[in-house]
Amino acid sequence: MSRKGNCWDNAVAESFFKSLKTELIYGNKLISKEQMKLEIFEYIEMWYNRKRRHSALNYATIEEFNNQINYKNVA
């Protein structure tokens, strides 16, 4: 993936999976595999993508950021 000393390739993915594990998975180990799949889907689609504010996007949600980009492209 990356060369020695180039730590930026996986930074976004590592940040996402750290958030997923700490906010959702740790503490939910006793539920079924199907229930965990549903929980992960809901976490990504309902919380992480729509409501969670991201520091890389100037503390906007992904929807707010996309709306700003689309508004700039239309105007």
Q: What report would you give on this structure?
A:
With 75 residues, the protein is an all-alpha fold. It has one domain (11-74). The chain is 59% helix and 0% strand. The chain has helices at residues 11-25, 33-48, 62-74.
pLDDT < 50 runs, ≥5 residues: none
Number of strands: 0
Kindly estimate the percentage of residues that lie in beta strands according to DSSP: under 5%
Distance between the termini: 39 Å
Shape: flat
| Major sheet characteristics | none
Overall pLDDT, averaged?
81
Q: What fraction, in percent, of the residue positions are helical? A: 55-70%
User: What is the rounded Rg?
Assistant: 16 Å
**The number of domains:** 1
Number of helices: 3
Which class best fits the helix and strand makeup?
Answer: mainly alpha
Output the keywords.
75 residues, mainly alpha, 3 helices, flat
Quick structural summary:
The protein has one domain (11-74). 59% of the residues lie in helices and 0% in strands.
What's the topology here?
Layout: H1 11-25, H2 33-48, H3 62-74
